[in-house]
Amino acid sequence: MGRQPGALTLSEDDRRVLAVWAADCAERTLWLFEAQAPTDTRPRDAIDGLRAFARGEMRIGPVRALAARAHSAAREIGDPAAVAAARAAGQAASVAHMAAHARGVAYAAKAAGLAAPNDPTAVAHEVLWQLRHASPTVRDILRRLPPPTRHTGMLGALINDMHTKLTAGGGTASRNP
Hints:
Layout: H1 12-27, H2 30-36, H3 42-54, H4 60-75, H5 80-93, H6 106-115, H7 122-133, H8 136-143, H9 153-167
């Protein structure tokens, strides 16, 4: 018999559901990385691997390796928005291993804000898309995670705020962007 999932890991089926949402969120800002490093496919490979995991076509170990490569790509690029976009891909792919990494889609919102420093609504617009795109099933799964550790800074505030909004009540979310 297999190992029981923990509070942060949840079941593989739950992680497959979260994987689709996390991949969709991370992919929205992936172009920011690709514009800076058009020949570096590591963040895109991580998202593609996560989608394969969600379909049951790739095991956790290879997707975890793809996530690590996306984070390596983030360390090698200088543009802050591109860094955040690559981190969003790495965090999303890490959902295959641990459900709590779904919170890392906040990096996509951070990337959107960094890419549009003169648009005070850029971060909020991206967060709103993520919230609206989270299905009732995604929200139910996220409710089973323990609350995130309270961190300061932009990313911490985004994660804390998104967790609160995604797990509040039992209401449904619109699938419209």
